[in-house]
Amino acid sequence: MRTKLVSLLLSGGLLGAFAVISVSLVAITHDSVEARIADNQYLAMKRKLDTILPTEQVNNDPLQDRLQVSARQLLGADFTQVYRARHDGSPVAVVLEPVVPDGYAGPIKLLVSVLRDGTLGGVRVVSHHETPGLGDKIEESKSDWVLGFTGKSLTNPPLEKWAVRRDGGEFDQFTGATITPRSVVKAVRDTLLYVQQQGEALYAPREDQAGGPTSGGQG
Amino acid sequence: MSAPQSYRRILSAGLWSNNQSLVALLGLCPLLATTTSATNGLGMGLATTAVITCSNGTVSLVRHLVRPEIRIPVFVLVIASFVTLVELIMQAFFYDLYQVLGLFIALIVVNCIIIGRAEAFASKNRLDRALLDGFAVGLGATLVLTTLGGLRELVGQGTLFHQADLLLGDWAKVLSLSLGKDFQGALIAILPPGAFIGLGLMIALKNLFDQRAKRRAAAQVVVAAPTTVTAT
């Protein structure tokens, strides 16, 4: 009985010691690389933003000049980040992170930049779960479909042409995958509509945002 | 383990004769899920090799300390810690690669090859053998992952080592091969069934090789010593 108890305690203590050692090892590593990881994430995001912004006109850091808005119906998520790009304080473009709620296999996260005149600076796919080989052609690395948005606006093509060709619109679908491009086109159009609706409010300095676009949304 | 295995045997067992993916059929979850391209397979294989070598080494070092009744939880702890460390280090130093493989790294924890080697080999062998075994087994798995990934990528997409530069640096761009934009891939290769079919073909091919080798060896025995063969 006694020896059993001793052996039980010994095993438990040993297991506990292992747990403490492993957890501290992980914690120490985490602590020492945390800042580096945050830097990496920041740089990766910045690089992505730079590809869809007119960088030569921007001299602020859009990642610092951000705003959170809420317009579920047009932007697909409860909260959406808006990054504001400026030149000496005057607005150049906004970059939004809308979510496409009706992808073929779950939500698709986009990065959409809208210049001040309402044309698209560019669209990129941040993450998705679409079928490899079919729906994943929305990725920039797989096909240049997504680059086709650059320079488009709500008047070019006209609003009713913002659809895939099969639906009578102007945008290509992929062979074997219509649902993915259809929902992406719709989400980009909705983002443009949202930006048009909000107008200058999206560029307002953060201090007076209390009653601004956050409550504006889609009424 | 009665007699310690020679280094040569450990290497050849890990790479071929007891290849954990093709013979033991362990670790199929990451194998089937991540091999949509050669680059993914290679990256996953290398990360797995790192984890398996470290965990084998650690398990071997503490093998006299760990009592039998708590060995499995200890192995799990060790493996989970190493996977977390690999994930953190990758995020800090190879962020581009992390963006490609990030989702899959956590899957290494459930790779039963690793706990299998800890239990079957590392907990009974000296540090040097355990390290070599981990390395060999990891390399064997990497070979299978890369081949299956390459096969599926080539058939399904018409490319090979697409985006390998994210994994290996800019020089790897020369590895990338493309059959041209007009290539109409067989999509099934990329989808999950393709993984099963591809793995089945690879297992069949390995068995074919082994059988051939056995027959050749038998034939040589016949030539060299006909009397013993007829006697049996």
TrEMBL record, chain A:
The modification FMN phosphoryl threonine is found at residue 178. InterPro entries: FMN-bd, Ion_transpt_RnfG/RsxG. This is Ion-translocating oxidoreductase complex subunit G. PANTHER family: ION-TRANSLOCATING OXIDOREDUCTASE COMPLEX SUBUNIT G (PTHR36118:SF1). It is found in: Cell inner membrane. Belongs to the RnfG family. The keyword Electron transport applies. Its main location: membrane. One of its GO terms (molecular function) is electron transfer activity. Residues 103-195 form the FMN-binding domain. It is an enzyme of class 7 (translocase). Its EC number is 7.-.-.-. It is a single-pass membrane protein. The keyword rRNA-binding does not apply. Pfam families: FMN_bind. The gene is rsxG. The lineage of its organism: Bacteria, Pseudomonadati, Pseudomonadota, Gammaproteobacteria, Chromatiales. The complex is composed of six subunits: RnfA, RnfB, RnfC, RnfD, RnfE and RnfG. NCBIfam families: PRK01908.1, rnfG. One of its GO terms (biological process) is electron transport chain. Part of a membrane-bound complex that couples electron transfer with translocation of ions across the membrane. Keywords: Cell inner membrane, Cell membrane, Electron transport, Flavoprotein, FMN, Membrane, Phosphoprotein, Translocase, Transmembrane, Transmembrane helix, Transport. It comes from the Bacteria. GO terms for cellular component: plasma membrane. Its cofactor is FMN.
TrEMBL record, chain B:
Its EC number is 7.-.-.-. It is found in: Cell inner membrane; Endomembrane system. It is a multi-pass membrane protein. It is an enzyme of class 7 (translocase). One of its GO terms (cellular component) is endomembrane system. InterPro entries: NqrDE/RnfAE (IPR003667), RnfE (IPR010968). GO terms for biological process: electron transport chain. It holds the Pfam family Rnf-Nqr. The chain crosses the membrane at residues 43-62, 74-94, 100-118, 130-151, 183-205. Belongs to the NqrDE/RnfAE family. PANTHER family: ELECTRON TRANSPORT COMPLEX PROTEIN RNFE, ION-TRANSLOCATING OXIDOREDUCTASE COMPLEX SUBUNIT E. Part of a membrane-bound complex that couples electron transfer with translocation of ions across the membrane. The complex is composed of six subunits: RnfA, RnfB, RnfC, RnfD, RnfE and RnfG. This is Ion-translocating oxidoreductase complex subunit E. It comes from Thermochromatium tepidum ATCC 43061. The gene is rnfE.
